[in-house]
Amino acid sequence: MSSTKDKKPTLAGQRIRSRKRDEKVKNDPEGFRNEIVKGLSDCQEDFEKAYKFLDTAGGTLDYRRYAESLFDVLISGGLMAPGGEITPPLCPFALFEFPERQETAQAFGQMLQKLLRRYKYLEVSLEEEFCKVVKFTKTFTEVNRSKLARLMAVLMSLNILSAKPISSLTIEAVVKEGIALDFITTLFRTFLALSPMSNLAAMLRKEKIDLMDFMPASRRTIEAFRAHCSQVGGLDEVVAWQSSLHARDQARQFQKDLSELLGNETPLGQIVDAAKDMLVRFNLTEGDVIERLFTVIMDFGEWEKKPDVADAAVRHVRTHVPLLLPFVTQIPTQIALLNRIQTFCFDNQACLKLFKSFVVLLYKTDVVTEDAILAWHDGAASPKGRSIFFEQMQEMIDWLKNAEEESEDDD
User: For the chain: N or C, fewer Cβ within 10 A?
Assistant: First the structure.
């Protein structure tokens, strides 16, 4: 027996086959484009026929691999090069090739909706496509920009596209030339014809989109935004929403500035003058000012660390009464202050039993009047802890009402 193992025979010219999953497929977007163009060329504006082709073609063409090419063709007619140049041959069945009509945008959107239901994985690619395409708006014609804005509005109203692509419009050159502003104007007008403002606001909030970012730098004011929307028409709800956000931001800045003044131990008289100036500069109401003032006062100081928290809180407010007095000239403002105190006491358990003490102090120092307290009790109170504070105030309310009746009898 041989001491060495015999070698196993081998077959000359043996071919080792690779696994199919390991084989590299050539990337061929042009070939894919040609197949899509060929299939859609005779569809004209028959969206049902186009959808049937796209639905069937998904079984043989690799939509997952060539999703970007698919949407390039459907939107522009061809493949988009970096910068937005569209490379031929062009497909006649494409958004940019159709006349600009609202019905066309809706039919196009509904076709894409059906396609995405059939091929769910295309949803992410669709959003990525629009994030890319809107960056090229400067290279498109004004008509094609309008078509694109209309289609985006339709897709957003169908909840198959978020507002994220809108953020891609904040490119300096696009904003500077007013292209971004015109684009969102068309988009919003189209969207609001299909869906309520509450839906649009929710989508913009989710993506943290500030509409002022689309205004050219030289016109980036709320007044210029209102003027633009008034000129084009149909955007009253957008103006109201943006104005409310602007007012909120201004009020926050007002509160921040007041906190700095108090933190620097600025004399109360100077703080009052500064607050009056900010009221005009930030275009705030007395109600905005008084609510923010009380918040700043209670955030300032160390009254919460004192052993007698209740007495310390009341003394703290008494010290800052001169700050409140100049801004409570109207009953609605006084009611707003009472509601702010109500919310504060409800949210701070250490002060839950102090509501009446605060009100009595403010009544005695002429910050709030009898009429304001009674109006608060008779229907203007905040729902937060209302029953608790009504119980605390019942004795004072009865006393005020009796005093009012006695006054009427004397007359």
Answer: N
